[in-house]
C-alpha cells in the first residue's frame, strides 16, 4: 500500500506555508537536545546523580513516544491547525513552569509536559503538506521534505551548543525559559499562515468515534514497557509480562473495532513502513547515545565545562546540517541509508579507542562521523515514510514514526545509565561503544536485506 511518490517539481509550497510548519516541528527536537549539557548542573543543584537526572531525558521521550500517535490521530480527525495552536500553548505553559526550581521530580514532570506539547509539530506538518499536495494534484516536492527534516536536524544538533551558551549566560533554568518565545512565535505563525482547518465533519453528520479504549491500552502497554526499559532488572521482569498482556488486549481490540486507533491490518500489510520505523529507531538509538552519553563523558571524563562540551559537538552539527541539505532528492534513498549504517558502525568502533588523553582533533572527527549519519537518516527515512503511508492516516503514521525514534532514544538513555553507572569515565564510554557496535551492525543487516529498498533502487537506475 503506497502513496503518491515524492515530486521534484516545486509548486505552491511557498515561504508562508512552510515557515509555520518548520517553527512548530522544531520545538520537539530542540527540547530533546537542549537538556544534554544541563544534566550535570541540574544534578549539582539538587544533589542528584546520573541515575536521577537521566529521567529528565526519558520523561520527554516517554511522553512523546506515547503522545505522538495520539496527537497524529487528532490531526487526522480535527485538523492540523487546531492541534498546532493547542500544542504551542502547552509548550509555553511548560516553559513558565520550568522556571520554578522545586526539585528534579518537578522538572521531570515539566519535561513530560513539554513532550506532550511538542508532539503536535511533526504529524501536523506532514498532514498539511500531504493535504496541500493532494489539492495541487502532485506529490510534496523533495526540497520541502528536505527543508522540514533539515530544520529539525539543525536545531537538534545545535541544541547542546545553544544549551551550553544559555547555561553559561543565565544558568540551567534558561533551557526551559527559551520555550516561551519559541512557542509564542510558533503560535503566531500558525494563527496567521497555516490554512484554516475544514469543519471536523459536515453539518448534521455524526462524528466518527474515537477509539478511546484503544488509545488507553496502547498508552498503558507502551508506558509499562518503557518503564522497564528505563531501569531493566531481573526483579522487574513482571513488567514485561504486564506489557505483553496489555499489548495483546490492545491488538484484540484494534482488530475488532470498526474505527481503530491504529489500523493493525494496514500495518501488517505495509511491511515497508514497519521497516522504516525499525531503521529510524535503531539509528536514533545510536545517535542519541552519542549526543547524551558522549557529552557527559566530555564533562565528567575529560573535565570540560558545559559550554565547551557543547561547542565540541559543533562538528556533529555542521556535518549533520550539510548532509541533510544535500539529501533533498527523492532518489538514492537506499545508498544514503547504507552510508548511515556504515558511519554509525565506524564511529562505534572508534569509541573503543578513545581515552582521557585522546587528541582533541580526533574527538572532533569522531562526532563528525556520527553527524553524517544523523544528517542522512531522517531525510531518507522521512522520504520513505511519505511514499508508503496512506494519505488519510498521514498524521497517525507520522506520529508512529516519531514514536519509533523516541523508543530508540529511551533505550539509549537506559544504555547510558547502565554503561556509566555513577560516573561517566572512559571505561563506561568503551562499554557504550560495544553496545552501539551491535546496534549499528543490526541496522546494516536490516538495510541491506530490505527488498523494498533494493527494488526502488533498481527502478531508479532503470
Structure write-up:
The radius of gyration is 21 Å and the shape is globular. It folds into 2 domains: 15-197 and 261-461, MFS general substrate transporter like domains (Growth Hormone, Chain: A); 211-260, no CATH class. Helix content is 77%, strand content 0%. The two termini are 22 Å apart. With 462 residues, the protein is mainly alpha-helical. The model is unreliable at 1-11 (pLDDT under 50). The chain crosses the membrane at residues 21-42, 54-76, 83-104, 110-129, 141-163, 169-192, 212-231, 237-255, 276-295, 307-325, 337-354, 360-379, 400-423, 429-449. Pfam families: MFS_1. GO terms for molecular function: transmembrane transporter activity.
Instruction: Count the beta strands.
Output: 0
Shape: globular
CATH class label of the largest domain: Mainly Alpha
- Low-confidence sequence ranges: 1-11
How does the major sheet shape up? none
CATH fold field value of the largest domain? Growth Hormone, Chain: A
Amino acid at each position: 500500500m503506497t502513496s503518491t511518490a515524492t515530486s521534484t517539481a516545486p509548486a505552491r509550497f511557498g515561504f508562508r506555508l512552510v515557515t509555520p510548519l518548520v517553527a512548530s516541528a522544531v520545538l520537539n527536537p530542540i527540547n530533546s537536545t537542549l537538556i544534554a549539557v544541563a544534566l550535570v548542573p541540574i544534578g549539582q543543584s539538587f544533589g542528584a546523580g546520573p541515575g536521577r537526572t537521566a529521567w529528565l531525558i526519558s520523561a520527554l521521550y516517554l511522553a512523546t513516544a506515547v503522545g505522538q500517535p495520539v496527537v497524529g490521530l487528532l490531526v487526522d480527525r480535527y485538523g492540523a491547525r487546531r492541534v498546532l495552536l493547542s500544542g504551542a500553548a502547552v509548550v509555553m505553559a511548560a516553559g513558565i513552569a520550568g522556571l520554578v526550581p522545586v526539585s528534579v521530580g518537578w522538572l521531570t514532570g515539566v519535561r513530560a509536559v513539554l513532550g506532550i506539547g511538542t508532539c503536535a509539530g511533526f504529524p501536523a506538518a506532514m498532514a498539511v503538506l500531504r493535504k496541500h499536495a493532494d489539492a495541487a494534484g502532485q506529490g510534496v516536492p523533495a526540497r520541502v521534505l528536505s527543508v522540514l527534516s533539515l530544520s529539525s536536524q539543525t536545531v537538534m544538533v545545535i541544541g547542546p551548543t545553544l544549551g551550553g551558551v544559555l547555561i553559561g549566560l543565565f544558568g540551567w533554568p534558561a533551557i526551559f525559559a527559551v520555550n516561551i518565545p519559541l512557542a509564542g512565535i510558533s503560535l503566531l505563525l500558525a494563527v496567521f499562515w497555516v490554512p484554516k482547518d475544514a469543519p471536523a465533519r459536515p453539518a448534521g453528520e455524526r462524528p466518527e468515534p474515537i477509539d478511546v479504549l484503544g488509545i488507553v491500552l496502547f498508552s498503558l502497554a507502551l508506558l509499562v514497557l518503557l518503564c522497564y526499559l528505563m531501569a531493566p532488572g531481573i526483579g522487574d521482569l513482571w513488567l514485561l509480562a504486564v506489557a505483553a498482556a496489555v499489548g495483546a488486549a490492545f491488538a484484540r481490540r484494534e482488530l475488532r473495532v470498526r474505527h481503530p486507533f491504529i489500523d493493525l491490518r494496514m500495518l501488517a500489510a505495509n511491511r515497508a513502513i514497519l521497516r522504516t520505523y525499525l531503521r529510524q529507531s535503531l539509528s536514533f538509538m545510536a545517535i542519541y547515545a552519542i549526543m547524551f552519553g558522549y557529552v557527559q563523558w566530555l564533562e565528567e571524563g575529560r573535565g570540560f565545562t558545559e559550554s565547551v562540551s557543547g561547542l565540541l559537538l559543533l562538528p556533529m552539527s555542521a556535518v549533520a546540517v550539510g548532509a541533510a541539505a544535500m539529501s533533498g532528492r527523492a532518489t538514492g534513498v537506499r545508498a544514503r541509508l547504507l552510508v548511515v549504517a556504515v558511519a554509525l558502525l565506524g564511529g562505534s568502533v572508534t569509541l573503543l579507542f578513545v581515552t582521557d588523553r585522546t587528541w582533541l582533533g580526533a574527538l572532533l572527527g569522531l562526532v563528525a562521523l556520527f553527524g553524517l549519519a544523523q544528517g542522512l537518516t531522517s531525510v531518507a527515512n522521512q522520504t520513505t515514510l511519505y511514499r508508503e503511508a496512506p494519505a488519510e492516516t498521514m498524521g497517525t503514521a507520522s506520529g508512529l514514526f516519531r514514536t519509533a525514534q523516541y523508543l530508540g532514544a529511551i533505550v539509549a538513555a537506559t544504555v547510558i545509565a547502565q554503561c556509566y553507572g555513577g560516573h561517566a569515565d572512559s571505561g563506561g564510554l568503551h562499554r557504550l561503544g560495544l553496545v552501539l557496535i551491535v546496534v549499528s551492525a543490526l541496522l546494516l543487516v536490516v538495510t541491506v536485506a530490505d527488498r523494498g529498498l533494493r527494488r526502488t533502487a533498481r527502478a531508479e537506475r532503470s
